[in-house]
Amino acid sequence: MIKVGTEPSVTASSVEKHLSEVVRGDRMDFSEENLKKFRDLDRLRKVYKLDEATKKPGSQGKKNRQSSSNDLTREVTDLLQDIPEMEAVVLGSMALKGW
User: Fold this and answer.
1) 99 lies in which domain range?
2) What total of structural domains would you count in the chain?
3) How crowded is residue 15: how many other Cβ atoms within 10 Å of its Cβ?
4) CA geometry: angle at 30 spanning 86 and 49, to 5°?
5) What's the pLDDT tens digit per position in 2-20?
């Protein structure tokens, strides 16, 4: 949960106190490492139609690839290489929608 305060009376300590009273769970730092644990890349691909948006010209989609013993390794490598491009597409979409 992220809470954003726009009034001067809202301080980090008041937010922490309020959230600790109303939210059950463990406190986590807001960091890239923690966000990576909870992102659902398959869902993001589906919602933002990222397979079409990040497809490289002349490349075959997942469906047309021939299977081999290294498919999983290749898919993980491809996914890791696509993440910065996926982020750009999602942020661009959010900017266009005014989120």
Assistant:
1) 40-56+69-99
2) 1
3) 14
4) 20
5) 667 778 888 888 888 988 8
- Report yes or no on 14 lying in a domain: no
The reply to whether 78 falls in a domain is yes
CA distance 60 to 55: 8
User: What is the spatial distance between Cα 86 and Cα 83, in angstroms, rounded to a whole number?
Assistant: 5
Nearest alpha carbon to residue 82 among 41, 46, 48, 43: 41
CA dihedral 53, 30, 13, 23 (to 10 degrees): 80
Q: Supply 58's token pair.
A: 């002349």
The pTM (predicted TM-score) of the whole model is 0.46
Using the predicted structure, report yes or no on whether residue 72 has a pLDDT greater than 70. Answer: no
**Which tokens sit at 95?**
């900017």
Overall residue count recorded for the chain in this entry: 99
